[in-house]
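User: Predict the full complex structure for these chains.
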Amino acid sequence: MNNVWIKTKLENKDKVILKCYTLNITILNSYEKDEELYLKIKQEDLKKINKIYFTKFKIVNYTGEKKILLVLKKYHIFFFALIIGMIIFYLITHIIISVQVVHSNEEIRNLLINALSERGIKKNTWKKNYEQLETIKNSILKQYPNKLEWLEINVEGMNYVVRVEERKIISQEKKNERCHIIAKKDGMIKKIVYSIGQSLVSVNDYVKKGDILISGIIKKDDETKNVMCATGKVYAEVWYEASVTLPKTTINSIPTNKIRYNFRIKNNYFNDFIFKSRLNKYQEEEKKLFGFLNTSFYFVKQIELTEEQITYSNEQLEQMALKQIEEKIKSSVEEGEIISQKILKQSDEQDVMKYQVFVTVLEQIGKTSPFELSND
Amino acid sequence: MHLYKTMKNFLFDHDYFIDIWGQCIHVYNFLNLITVNDKLLQLQMQDFELKVTGTSFRVLKLTKNEILITGNIKEMRFFNE
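Assistant: Here is the predicted structure of the two-chain assembly.
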């Protein structure tokens, strides 16, 4: 309810009150002070009060919404500064400006920074609550069970301080005091490198899977001198047969000269263009303009693509087949390099070509195998 | 609104109220305000005229048919026409 305090000269008091009554003006309160009469009336009665001609009224104060608005208007700079201050305070208490990982090992530090970043713990982001930090901590420990022993994420002001303990695993080789190096594949020995043990094979020897290459039992004149865990690497020529099927034709996307520009907003919940894209098929080149908290703004260049059918020649197909097989072999071999490739067979089938390739690989075939000495 | 009026008529089944407590006098449903000043309050009621005398009278509330006055009440008289 909006009411207003007005004042007039006290000498007209009786006449004013009677006139208020005749004009149907509601008086809500009144008092006298310093030879003046103060009246509290409804705001809608202000027009009626001006009809009292024999005295003049002056508005002293308002109550209700009008009063609030007047106070806001009068002290707007103070309220504006207060709101800005509160926003700044909120940001200061809820934003993280740096993440520090406390550990002497740079590898562990980088590993943790990446793992934390993937989980949203990075600079210029909102502070996470205790439950979220616990969940992140547990998921990181679960992801790297062999590297991390213990992890703690502390919030210190506007920073995250991450303390970590590295897990140190005693190697299996040291634990097994007695072991041989055995062949894990068939092959022809090409190179032997060993520091502990006694080599039982020579270069150009053909070995089968399971054969002992470097023995942990050191013998001299058929007499056992020492028993230890053999360490070393044995490289052998290993042979593979691989097959690959390739299509004779393929549809390739080629960029045209038609370019459109757009903007993109990206954050954890939203990733879309500001303007509607007018190209059907295009490739993008985006450049980050700026980022605020978790949200980033990008300038995107869209280059239109046209589709073109390409028919490969036999030579191209052979090269592609050899390259694919090379990649396949590399991904399956732990330590080794391809020495040679030879196409054994190729068959032309309607839309595809099938290739069968013989591959020679120089590969490390030795692996540690523990053994027990018999009492005999 | 009909329900409200019915309730009001039932609960306030009187033509007027004159309440006096402490230094206050409250009159409800008067017909006309004849005089009001520091020492005198004169009201026209339905069947009579109410005259209240005293000192330091101050209007706390005044509407078309209701008045609340505070002050030192000395005397209250009813005049039948």
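The mean pLDDT of chain B is 88.
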